[in-house]
Amino acid sequence: MRMKTFALWALLLASFSLWASPYNRNTAVPVQKVEYATVESVRQVHQQELVEDKNRGWKTFGGALAGGLIGNQFGDGSGRDVATVLGALLGAGMVQNRSPAYQVRELVLVELMVMTDAGERLMVLQDQDPRMHFNAGDEVRLVYLSEGSVRVDKAM
């Protein structure tokens, strides 16, 4: 039993470390290899992504709290208790209906078709960097990172 628990924790930790390590511009990432290529075509791709609102429960709780506080101002005795409960329910319901469960995030990507110096044609889809514009005929380098992803940068 103890060995199974340890194995489960090790698996969860390993999967979390893989999930939580995206490529960012200001981090050091091990490089597997670098190849040089020429850009054949460039295309901008717009993609929408649904992002779940992680604070929705807290917003509902805040609405219920505010509604309960307002409802508590009315009535006496058991009437006050009923007004407090109704105010909490109405406040939670109003917030739940007004705040969307998901938000849409617009991603701007760039699709690059490149021909490597070895004669291999590759297509790379990556986030668009507003400071790095690619055109057909540009000399670029393909940076293969350790987690299996590829980045295209201008060759220096």
UniProtKB/TrEMBL annotation:
One of its GO terms (cellular component) is outer membrane. Residues 60-93 form the Glycine zipper 2TM domain. Transmembrane segments: none annotated. Keywords: Membrane, Signal. Residues 1-20 form the signal peptide. Pfam families: Rick_17kDa_Anti. It is found in: Membrane. It comes from the Bacteria. Coiled coil: none annotated. InterPro entries: Bact_OM_lipoprot/Surf_antigen, Gly_zipper_2TM_dom. This is Glycine zipper 2TM domain-containing protein. It comes from Ferrimonas aestuarii. The lineage of its organism: Bacteria, Pseudomonadati, Pseudomonadota, Gammaproteobacteria, Alteromonadales.
